[in-house]
Amino acid sequence: LMDSYTTENYSDALPESSDIVSVNILEEPILVVNENAKSALKTTSSWAAFFSVMLFISVGFLFLGGLLILVLGAIFPFLPTEAEVPFGMFIFLGIIYMIMAGVMFFPALYLFRFSQKTPDAIHKNNPITLEDAFVNMKAYWKFMGILTIASIGLSILMFPIAIFLSIAGIF
User: How far apart are CA 169 and CA 145, in angstroms?
Assistant: First the structure.
């Protein structure tokens, strides 16, 4: 009965011998990254590098914008204007911008690490470095997912608050 289940009966369904690195049913399966996958990973890492640099630049502008708002908030009360802007509003906005810069630093860092480790892993054929690259990619997407959910929740929460404040005449 076992002879009817040999590989000879299914030889056309098996990959070519050059595609098989190791076959041992007692060990953990081995993942082979072929040349097409390596090429796709190199391209992906290049785009990840581009977007991580764009994120770092955005983080810098957010932080500098927050500092500028704080400085303007300190100068604004001494300027002769008719506008009635509460002093605390500038401090609040400046701090919010700086917090946003701090929050966005981490996804930029995760994406940058992925973009650096992936080509290194492919060049050196190092599965541990590739695993570390994917851990950073996972951290990036997890962070962005949580940030998206929090942003949606905050938007939903702010809508009725804005309506209440406008009816109360505060804004």
Answer: 36
b/e map 87-121, b = 16+ CB within 10 Å? eeebeebbeebbebbeebbbbbbbbbbbbbbbbeb
Rounded to the nearest angstrom, the gap between the alpha carbon of residue 74 and the centroid of all alpha carbons in its chain is 35
Reference 147, options 94, 110, 93, 95; nearest CA is 110
Q: CA 157, CA 171: separation in Å to the nearest integer?
A: 17
pLDDT tens by residue, 156-171: 999 999 888 888 877 5
Calpha distance 69→94 (Å, rounded): 5
**Separation CA 101–CA 117 (nearest Å):** 24
Q: For helices 127-168 and 87-124, what crossing angle results, to 10°?
A: 160
C-alpha closest to that of 41 among 51, 49, 30: 49
H/E element holding 30? Answer: none
Closest-CA residue to 119 (of 133, 101, 103)? 133
pTM: 0.73
